[in-house]
Amino acid sequence: MSLCNLSTWGGAFYPLFAGMAYQNTNQIENAINKYEESIDFAKKSGFKQVEGIGISLKATILRFKQDFNSAITLHLKAEKLLFEIGAKPDLAEAYFQLGLTYQAMGEHEQVAHYVEYYKAKALEIFEQMEAPKQIERVDQAFKQGTQQ
User: Which fold has domain 3-144?
Assistant: First the structure.
């Protein structure tokens, strides 16, 4: 599908959602390509929220590939963008994913600090939003040590 035929919002969101579909079907390289397409389009269009979401999603893939340094760099970039524009639900998700990335790095004292810090930041926002299912999801992920 050509992005020229989509609205501006569609041009930003179509590759983002396509990337998620590819990621859910374990087509990782296609997912990365779609996230990058979404990020590029969002930058050109000034959609910082979509850019931040795309960067965060790309970072989660890098976590699964155990490229932790690149994942953390991207997570922090997404966090900064989402914080600047006040996109609280997406920021909470970015904190959650960043905490999971630190958790996936293994048991180190400094890493444990970051895991707890970002878990607490995600929970704080989800509590403000009154999102009990998200709170439960965060709690379960960190108890189980999973990479959601």
Answer: 1.25.40
